[in-house]
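Notebook, p. 212. Picked up where the previous page left off. The plan for this session was modest: take the two constructs that came back from the sequencing core last week, fold each one, and keep the raw output in the notebook itself so nobody has to go hunting through shared drives later. Recording the first one now, exactly as returned: residue sequence, then the structure token string.
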Amino acid sequence: MTLITEVEGRRVTLSNLDKVLYPATGTTKGEVLHYYATAADALLRHLHNRPVSFLRYPDGPDGQLFFTKNPPLGTPAWVNTAPVPRSEDAGARQVMIQDLPSLVWAANLVVEFHTHQWQAGMPGLADRMVFDLDPGAPATVVECCAVAAWLRERLGDDGLHAYAKTSGSKGLHVLVPLEPTPSSRVTAYAKSLAVEAEAVLPRLVVHRMTRSLRPGKVFVDYSQNAAAKTTAAPYTLRAKAVPAVSAPVTWGEVEGCRDPGDLVFLADDIAPRLERHGDLFGPLADPDRAGPLP
């Protein structure tokens, strides 16, 4: 079934609303669209003015997954795009999700939203820094929380504010608002903290990607600060067995995590969390919280 609806004056075509995308929970495409509409205010705050890449999973997480950087075929003319420098394509552009109509249009494609750490018009000049904490089994998000707490304190020593969110998968993301800084410098600083974390917590942390080093430890991935890299956006759904969300969390929740299930948040959990906490990542968009790298 195809439905043509109007969203804030834009005609948006929605399709296959009854299609089950997450068999484990019976979550349909229509429910995915409803989630994105209800989380729109918070999500759009973090997509604003950032070129977006999509991980598409139109047949659910068990179907084909493919990453899309270029505007998808059939992108409406009213959906904004921005130039994105790529060595292989000087004229490359990516979609900008700036409002509810473009969000609903993109959500109909069944996507994860991924963004750079810089804004359109300032490629390679990062206003956010990210640490992707990835546990190697048997380590879990519980171990990631211990590393995140160390990073928060260490970043605080340098006058920087840290905020945490679940990855929506196994791990945790720690983000830091910055005064605009070249991505290469942010990457170097993030790497120095990853190396320091391994020196201070050698039984818990590894800073190299080598698979053989990672069992039972948390890989502190600093590489997503590179100008070409992207990270799952706050509040995006992930292509996992259940409709898990990359959800901002309080530091109290991080410090109190004792079981991996403590930090699993599904689509239905987000509206109550937004009502209770507001947008925990709101300070990331506040220039007064942005700090300079030391």
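Okay, moving on. Second construct, recorded in the same format:
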Amino acid sequence: MHPIEIDPFTIQISESEVARLKRKLVDTRLPEHEIVAGAGDAYGPPAEWFQRLYNKWVNDFDWFVVQKHLNRHQHAIATIPDNEYDLKIHFTHTRSMRTDAIPIILIHGWPGSFYEFDRLVDNLAAPQSESDPAFHVVVPSLPGFCWSSNPPKRGWTMQDNGRLFDKLMAGLGYDSYVVQAGDWGSFVARELGSKYPRCRAIHLNFSPATEDFMPESESEKKRHERSQDWLDDHLGYAVCMRTRPHTVGYGFHDNPMGILSWVGEKYYELVSPARRSDPAWDKIILTQVSLYYFSGCIMPSMLPYYENPKHAEFAKLFMIEENLVKVPMAYTSFLYDSRPGNKRSAKLTGNLVFYNGMSIALDRTFSE
């Protein structure tokens, strides 16, 4: 295997690009009225939410403060040889000072990015208690996201990304590692945990049950209802992206409010309702949306939906013999995730050694 090349990288959006974003926002005309009187959030996030986020993006959001914050971690671009291609993968790498630290790779999904884990990295690398494990933390951007290369060909799947990320961890000098992932990242984690010896354990926060999996307890019933509601009423975005990513992508590529609408909706729906008006959560949304806009990744970020199985096929894919997770697997099911699963269904997909069903959101506010 050819060695990977690693070059330092700094997020450095020019003043002219930031000013251009501001001009485009100021020149935007939002709808004067909600779609119908009393629409609330039945048709998507309510009109008040769009107006609040728009006003904050125009008047209060300081990209250069955010950029400085993001650059506190060490960023790099790895050039990874893969068959006939050389792919560039953007990632952050934060090494712990602890000699007993465990290498971990954190893998995002859509509409996430490396920033999804921003509030976790420092605590993982330097836990407050010596009795807690410490980690060397690697957070890559999936191909097609932020500053990673686009997938090089049609038919590029999450399994291909697993191969890349195993090479990345080896290239960083790690003979073994563990994984945390959700959403599309969970597909990569399962690939690593089922086929790559360097991967020693995985933790997931996404493991949906099959649609015909009938609940047997009150906890399972709540998760089943949430999952079914997602399949019935919230999958329009996925249908568009798995059928016409070019059409949607060209419409949103240079359209900041379009990106906020498309991406921000998920941050409205996939959080505890109590957090939807949290100013710190608003800033997190605007940071994520700004990363998509400045890196120009909104269109290629849609490719996972086109190239991988449909939502209704997820659980069946996980239960195929060759995809069963062989290493120790942990799963935390959050009620406000898109398709919360349960312990019984997760056990069908691999070597489940730990399960935690979170019935409510963590009782804390979001902070930097």
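Notes on construct two before I forget. Confidence is low (pLDDT under 50) at residues 361-368.
Flagging for discussion at group meeting.
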